[in-house]
Structures are given as structure tokens and as C-alpha cells.
Design goal:
- The structure is a single chain.
- By secondary structure, the protein is an all-alpha fold.
- It has three domains: 52 residues; 46 residues, no CATH class; 72 residues.
- 84% of the residues lie in helices and 0% in strands.
- The protein has five helices and no strands.
- The longest helix is centred in the N-terminal third of the chain and has 49 residues.
- It starts with a helix and ends with a helix.
Length: 174
């Protein structure tokens, strides 16, 4: 009888140890699955942060505001400095009109021609840049061709302006 009870007792111990082993295995598997899930979540979050693009709406709102405020502050500070220098010159008995740079009439003589050539070059550059972008590159968001053509033709317009203005100055001197 005692052997039967030992056999039953050993079977019970074996079943209990197997259930503990199975329970430990299932806990371990749950731990592994949770660890893999957390690792995958971290990878997804990292990829999302690396590919994050700032909200275009916020950028389009704040960039012009910051630019306008910066230009205003720069101009205000420049005028304040100019005013302080003038006041200092008056206090020391100097003539503040010495600060003013006399304007050369020849630089403003052909202003309309300069702006016309500048805008003509920029417009021609934009037109050729967009045309080449559509015909050669076939990408909607590639603006390298447009920007380079615009800058090239704007510079070319200013060079042509310089040649025309020099020619007109020589004709006026004779």
C-alpha cells in the first residue's frame, strides 16, 4: 500500500512539476512575445521619427511671419543707429550731412532698363527652366533646372543691361 501511495505521490509530483514547467514555458513565451512587440514598436516609432516631415501648414504660416518681423527689426535697428550717430555728431558740433552719400545720377539714369532686363531674364529663365524640366527630367518636384535657368538668365539679363548702359553712356558723352 505504501508503494502504491509512493507511486501516486511520485506521479502527482511529476504532474505538478510538468505543470510548473509548462507554466514557466508559457510565461517565457509571453515574455519573448512582449519583448518582440515592444522592440517592433520602438522600430516603428524610430522610423516614423526619421521620416517625419514638419507640418507644411505650420511652416507656411510661421516662415513669412518670422521673415517679416526680422526685416522690420533689422530696419528699425538700422534707423535707430543712424539717429544716434546723427545726434552724437550734432552734440559734438559736426555736420550730420557728411553722413549722406551723394547719389550718382548715372546709376539711376537707366533704372527702368535695368529692371526690365532683370525681369526679362528672370521670366525667360523660368519659362525655359519649366519647359526643360517637363521635357527632359519629367519630375514634378525637381526644381533644379528651373532655379538654375532662372539664375542663369537673370545674370545674363544684367550683363546685357551693363553693355547697353555702357553703350548709351558713351553715346551721351559724344
Amino acid at each position: 500500500m505504501q508503494t502504491d501511495s509512493l507511486t501516486i505521490s511520485s506521479q502527482t509530483d511529476l504532474t505538478t512539476s510538468q505543470s510548473h514547467s509548462i507554466q514557466q514555458d508559457s510565461q517565457y513565451q509571453a515574455y519573448v512575445l512582449d519583448s518582440l512587440r515592444i522592440e517592433k514598436d520602438h522600430e516603428i516609432e524610430l522610423e516614423r521619427l526619421q521620416n517625419a516631415v514638419p507640418d507644411a501648414g505650420m511652416v507656411t504660416i510661421f516662415v513669412p511671419i518670422i521673415a517679416i518681423v526680422s526685416v522690420f527689426l533689422f530696419l528699425w535697428r538700422a534707423s535707430e543707429n543712424k539717429r544716434k550717430v546723427r545726434l552724437t555728431m550734432i552734440e559734438k558740433g559736426m555736420d550730420p550731412s557728411l553722413l549722406e552719400v551723394p547719389r550718382d545720377e548715372s546709376s539711376h539714369k537707366y533704372g527702368a532698363l535695368r529692371w526690365g532686363m532683370l525681369l526679362l531674364g528672370a521670366g525667360l529663365g523660368l519659362f525655359i527652366g519649366f519647359t526643360l524640366n517637363e521635357l527632359v527630367i519629367h519630375e514634378q518636384h525637381s526644381m533644379y533646372m528651373v532655379v538654375s535657368c532662372t539664375l542663369l538668365f537673370t545674370g545674363l539679363g544684367l550683363v546685357i543691361y551693363h553693355q547697353l548702359a555702357s553703350k548709351l553712356e558713351k553715346e551721351n558723352k559724344h
